[in-house]
Amino acid sequence: MPELDSEFISNQLARCNRCGYCIRTCPTYRATGHEGAVARSRNDLVRAVQRGKSELLEEMGDRFFQCLLCGACTESCLTDVQTDEIMVEAREAYRQAHGDSWLQQFIFRELLPDPERLAKYARLVALGKNTGISGLARSLGLLKIVSPKLDNAEALVEHMPREFFRDQLPHLGFHPVEDRPRGWFRYRPARVTGLRLLYFVGCGSNFQVPGEVVAGVRLLQAGGCDITVAPNVCCGLPPYSYGDREAARLLAAANLETLGSADCDVLLTECGSCSSFLKHYPRLLEGTEAAEPAQALAGKVRDITEVLPDLTLPEPRPLSHRVTYHDPCHLGRKQKIKAQPRDLLKRIPGVEHIELPEADWCCGGAGSYNLSNPDLSRKVLARKVENVRETGADTLITSCPACVIQLASGMREAGLDIQVRHLCDFLAEAHLPPDDAPC
Ligand code: SF4
Ligand code: SF4
């Protein structure tokens, strides 16, 4: 039987006095009203197992896996108990006790470490979605037989892009790097006036919202940046969140090997989850040989919202929009990047920014939470949708591909005519001419 007795867990549990301050801001508690859905109760279960008062029972799985890992409880907690990190260890122990699903194993161990294979599967999925085959399979109940997660994923997105981001690199003025293996591309401006960037392409960014990455890259090009794109693999956050820290470490090690050799000022991404987890590598790899290189790499990581304010971009043209902004958990809470996206929006003439109530509350997307816990995810999302509706905004902006997809599905289901856009996409509309062909 796996144990839940790491030094980290013991220290954290010793600090949880069951005061319940975390109740106010826990989205799963506020969505369900169940005491079992709040941090102190989740921690109590771990404590019971740790002290030998209970086995790690199969029915505890829901309580561990229904946590969004949003970190809101830690912010409300006077002793900074990191329930999200406790849950990651609890999930790991749970998996070891009760086994993994074949789909998770396949995705984390076979697909994510192999970008070319992952791209082939993504093309198949896109073909199925865009031709209506997967929709048909779903309506016949076939996807549910293979896996409920596939069924939920099919329903979540309206369509899949026909071209992924990496396919578009040549059209964006990127060229293969001669002394590097396949997958390395570089864009050199005539005169470098910005930063020398290594662009980290996240999986969701590449496959699900490539237009937003293109928008981000075009802004960086307009800001005079020298940009290199490497054949990185997934940052590792999906397996980490699932409690498969070993799979996350393998992906992190592969990225360190690929990215560590690049000569750059900044390792940059437009996905708040990727930037957050790349900064988490030193902790993930603590005690291993890779800890030092992980520290060096993490020191260079910046989210695009940290870099754009310092670039000299073309003057923005006026846009007539009433906008509101949702803080992705991994950007706003975990990296404390809240002011920069709002400041960037406020620079655009004609844009009225309305502050969103509970802007930093999780939208229920939480990586693949909307696939594994669809009902609870929808309840969490409903609260967000209501807050957005109250602002009267016509456009909802955010800075994470997973949030874009989740929020867009929420607006669709609620029948609201509110566009959901990634910040880069919106900024590109303001700062770049519509037909500005990247040079
Ligand atoms: S996690 Fe923090 S706020 Fe919540 S009950 Fe424990 S000590 Fe109190
Ligand atoms: S991490 Fe989020 S969902 Fe989980 S217990 Fe804390 S506040 Fe609730």
What would you note in describing this structure?
- The protein has 439 residues and is α/β, with parallel strands linked by helices.
- It folds into four domains: 7-98, no CATH class; 102-156, no CATH class; 166-309, no CATH class; 315-431, Rossmann fold (3-Layer(aba) Sandwich), CATH 3.40.50.
- It has helices spanning 7-15, 27-32, 39-50, 61-65, 72-76, 83-98, 102-111, 115-131, 133-139, 142-146, 148-156, 203-207, 210-222, 237-241, 245-259, 272-284, 291-298, 304-307, 329-335, 339-346, 369-372, 374-391, 401-414, 423-431, and strands at 175-176, 185-187, 196-199, 226-229, 266-269, 301-303, 321-325, 351-353, 395-398, 419-422.
- The chain has a six-stranded mixed beta sheet with strand order 1-2-4-3-5-6, sandwiched between helices.
- The mean pLDDT is 88.
